[in-house]
């Protein structure tokens, strides 16, 4: 520290002042720092993380507007878990504050870093997820009974979570709900919850499922749900576990280990319990559907029956008999017709023959001859010269020769002549003979 | 009609019955008996839904074991330590 005249004032009076050199000031700052703020824990968010080529890691610890530079020397790196070095992570850093004279900057030389708050939860979650990855296998998730009769609820008796859960749950479904009261945050919460899971499994084994629920809270409040113990207890539960813990967006380890995760207590009630009213509606629909199906079936059967009935009728033996009978009748009729035709024909023929025969019968012939004879006789009679006699004519014959006298030749007076009259004869003697000329 | 089955089993059986009834080659007699069974199951389920009553109880643990208490009493009990 020196005291020298730097300049003169307006009056020309030179004034003396105290001053430090840069080196002096930087040494002063360094010693001030080291004496008053040697090793300390500082809470801040990591930002501006840089990995230097020389192996050192530089970062800023920030809180709102304030920033503090920090360095992690390469020989200290092994002490720090790598996952803690992450942009934006809220941490507690332990180290020594040092002023670097060369650059005029204050640095925290980090020895330890521990995650804080949500950061801690995230890191723990990441670590445990990796460690117990096999316990988070989706294939391990058990199905929830669709119609639970008896369930266990692990929660605080005085939280809004229970109220919400019961309000939604009881409105939807009627079940036997057993509440296992526990502390859901702070000291003892983890122990309570784990004990509850165990007790319910051992002493209330007829439960259909267990619900673990609480409302959202600060990362610290949710700490019990980010533990190894909770994962193991949930996975060791024989009874399926539903977890509705914490925030809607962030899944706790309890959520992830559970058989079913729900974002809120009311959502859990909705998930677990079927809606009674919806079911009644569904049953009514099923009733209608059953009725439709059976009606359809009956209609189909009726149609089928009708068709079969018709088919059967077609194949009725009686019907066949009737048909056969008809055919038979037809045949009979045809046969009769043919036969009678034939008979008729034969009869005709016979009649014809008979007629012919009759015609040729000797008596007939005789008759005929007789008739003919009669005719001839008649004719003969009609032609008989005696017939003329009746008309006044008479026949003159020679006597006793009996030759018919047609002319006066050979007749001489006194010849005897026989005159045949219609009735009787005359024997006369010729008195005179005259020829046609009266000579 | 008394059934020795759970609500869930009844619903499952109902679905089965509907499924069967949708088969084309089902005998009418079988269909009718399925239908009757289905209607009985629906009645059974409705009865169950209407009969069921909720029960909310709190498990209280002490040295002697567990007791069940109503929500109000349990709250009072726990408030008073």
UniProtKB/TrEMBL annotation, chain B:
- Keyword match Transferase: no
Where does it live in the cell?
Answer: Cytoplasm
Q: Which reaction does it catalyse?
A: Exonucleolytic cleavage in either 5'- to 3'- or 3'- to 5'-direction to yield nucleoside 5'-phosphates
Q: Which residues form the signal peptide?
A: none
EC main class here is hydrolase
One GO BP on record is:
DNA catabolic process
Can you list the GO cellular component terms from the UniProt entry?
cytosol; exodeoxyribonuclease VII complex
List, in alphabetical order, the Gene Ontology terms for molecular function in this entry. exodeoxyribonuclease VII activity
> Per the UniProt record, which EC number(s) apply here?
3.1.11.6
Annotated SUPFAM superfamilies: XseB-like (SSF116842)
Tree of life domain: Bacteria
Gene3D superfamilies, alphabetically? Exonuclease VII, small subunit (1.10.287.1040)
Q: How does it assemble?
A: Heterooligomer composed of large and small subunits.
- Family the UniProt entry places it in: Belongs to the XseB family.
Q: What does this protein do?
A: Bidirectionally degrades single-stranded DNA into large acid-insoluble oligonucleotides, which are then degraded further into small acid-soluble oligonucleotides.
Q: Which NCBIfam families match?
A: xseB
The name on file for this protein is Exodeoxyribonuclease 7 small subunit
What is the scientific name of the source organism?
Answer: Caldimicrobium thiodismutans
